[in-house]
Amino acid sequence: MNTRIALLATGGTIASRTHRAERAVAATATELLEATAPPAGVAVTPVDLAARFSSAAGTDDVLDLARAVDAHAAGHHGIVITHGTDTLEETAFLLALVHRHDVPVVITGAQLPLDHPETDGPANLAHALDWACRGRPGVTVGFDRQIWPAIGIRKLHTTARRAFAVPGADPIATAGPAGLVEHRRTPAPPPLPVPAHLPRVEVIPQYLGVDTTALDAALHAGAAGLVIAAFGDGNATPELTRRAVALLHGGMPVAVTSRVGAGPVHGHYAGAGAALAAAGALMIGGLSPWQVRLLLATALAHTPDQPLHTARRWLAAAREQGAVTPEAPVPSSG
């Protein structure tokens, strides 16, 4: 019996062509498949879900994609999604949060359009299809001959072919002359339910001289939760720290991650990260601010009365299973 794979196309550079020096999404799932060499013995079902660059997608679009994955999982052995690279790390993470089947999901894309003489899309898609046939549960990202877990994935270069990685980790598999070579397994953490809608959670960036303007705007817009993209291992300015502590005491869920690409988030410093941690903020290393935003929003949708508890429970399970990059030990003061 053939291995059955669903190919869900959502647009992106991998499906684009260039006209008058501008790229536009112009290729269907069938056309992408025709440009690729699928593994032998694989029956691929092409499905067109969207035709846009991922910068134009919203959270409702990704929730629709999650529901499409859920629907196609019943009749297929694996699912491959073609996606734009701009928000791929966010889509991959949200799918990893809610994917409840053992059917593998692999997300891929391209840095060069389909009609470019050196396009990387067909090769990326071929490796994604190959990996999906391995039957490894969970959501992964396939890009430039490497397979990565969706949790913690980041886009690290705007144009390079090797654009994605999980800081502090090695790829799950790499492609060589004999095909994909698997290096390790990454378990899938317990899924959260797919929300009907994600509550508004805003990311508040920290930078030299920042005040509370962005925080005030977020609250005025009706934010139900906040993520602080902090300095270092979890610091914020004194003014913002005081406001965030007051919000935590008033019941607003606040998560703290780092604007730095890798490393733990503990919050060691008085009047800054230590005050946020003591007030009950969720301190998260190993995830980008944009992924933490989706974790907190999904937790809010699932358990609006205790979102930080739900997020902590998911994070603890993910760390125990090795699905989130382990944090480095806290250095001694001596």
From TrEMBL:
<dbReference type="Pfam" id="PF00710">
    <property type="entry name" value="Asparaginase"/>
</dbReference>
<dbReference type="InterPro" id="IPR040919">
    <property type="entry name" value="Asparaginase_C"/>
</dbReference>
<dbReference type="InterPro" id="IPR037152">
    <property type="entry name" value="L-asparaginase_N_sf"/>
</dbReference>
<protein>
    <recommendedName>
        <fullName>asparaginase</fullName>
        <ecNumber>3.5.1.1</ecNumber>
    </recommendedName>
</protein>
<dbReference type="InterPro" id="IPR027475">
    <property type="entry name" value="Asparaginase/glutaminase_AS2"/>
</dbReference>
<dbReference type="InterPro" id="IPR020827">
    <property type="entry name" value="Asparaginase/glutaminase_AS1"/>
</dbReference>
<dbReference type="InterPro" id="IPR006034">
    <property type="entry name" value="Asparaginase/glutaminase-like"/>
</dbReference>
<dbReference type="InterPro" id="IPR036152">
    <property type="entry name" value="Asp/glu_Ase-like_sf"/>
</dbReference>
<feature type="active site">
    <location>
        <position position="85"/>
    </location>
</feature>
<dbReference type="InterPro" id="IPR027474">
    <property type="entry name" value="L-asparaginase_N"/>
</dbReference>
<comment type="similarity">
    <text>Belongs to the asparaginase 1 family.</text>
</comment>
<dbReference type="InterPro" id="IPR027473">
    <property type="entry name" value="L-asparaginase_C"/>
</dbReference>
<feature type="active site">
    <location>
        <position position="13"/>
    </location>
</feature>
<feature type="domain" description="L-asparaginase N-terminal">
    <location>
        <begin position="4"/>
        <end position="175"/>
    </location>
</feature>
<feature type="domain" description="Asparaginase/glutaminase C-terminal">
    <location>
        <begin position="200"/>
        <end position="306"/>
    </location>
</feature>
<dbReference type="Pfam" id="PF17763">
    <property type="entry name" value="Asparaginase_C"/>
</dbReference>
